[in-house]
Amino acid sequence: MLALLASSAFPLGADLGADLSGILTFPNNTPSNVDGKLGFGFRAVPTLELSLSDYLALRGSAGYELTTWGTKSSSDVLGVSYSSDSSVVTQFLTFGIAGEVYILPNLAFVSVGSSVDIPLHSQYTYKRTLAGVSTTTDGDITGDQNSVFLDLGAGVQLTPSFGIVASYRLPMVPYYDRNNQTDELRQISLGFRFTLL
């Protein structure tokens, strides 16, 4: 039914599909003495692609994303050592829109667009070690915010219904920006593109 409505709304042709991607997350943190920990995750998004010509298309997506990430820091003041290590699991609703240019019609393309990640839930484990004594706490992150990305991608359409796509997401609005702390979640993804209808 949705495909019928989409086709009638867009006479040039609209295709329903889905993107399934694995994610590498690279946190960029402030203050500078806090280092980011590489995270892993996945993204599953239904898509709607509007073909404007043999070379141009407009693609919208909305779906679910989960990724791990974290931070760590250490110091040594007057012989007293201190270190901290946090591990985070975050779930998002993610929405995006991108323009695609087919370098080779129906085969190879590049894309540029923007997306928004809306946090659903973020749970952390925080370990602190002071002078050899460690404590661990668990909790939920509060004060996180919607993050906005510039999305750059490229892909190959192997068949009319299956392709491979890679993308880089550059944060324009950070995931967290409060209490003199900023966390940006840069991402590289690689995945599969399916055209369903």
Task: Note the main attributes of this structure.
197 residues; mainly beta; Porin; 8-stranded antiparallel beta barrel; 1 helix; 4% helix; elongated; disordered N terminus
Overview of this protein structure:
With 197 residues, this protein is mainly β. The chain has a single domain, classed as Porin (Beta Barrel), CATH 2.40.160. It has one helix at residues 2-9; strands at residues 14-30, 35-37, 39-51, 56-77, 80-104, 108-130, 133-140, 147-159, 162-173, 176-178, 181-195. It has an eight-stranded antiparallel beta barrel with strand order 1-3-4-5-6-8-9-11. β8 (147-159) and β9 form a beta hairpin. The model is unreliable at 1-11 (pLDDT under 50).
Q: Roughly what percent helix?
A: under 10%
Report the C-alpha radius of gyration, rounded: 20 Å
Strand content: over 45%
CATH structural class = Mainly Beta
Distance between the termini: 10 Å
Mean pLDDT: 91
Total number of helices = 1
- The CATH architecture assignment turns out to be Beta Barrel
CATH-defined fold name: Porin
Main β sheet profile: 8 strands, antiparallel, barrel
Shape: elongated
Biggest sheet, spatial arrangement of strands: 1-3-4-5-6-8-9-11
Low-confidence stretches: 1-11
Instruction: Compute the number of structural domains.
Output: 1
- The strand count comes to 11
Structural class: mainly beta
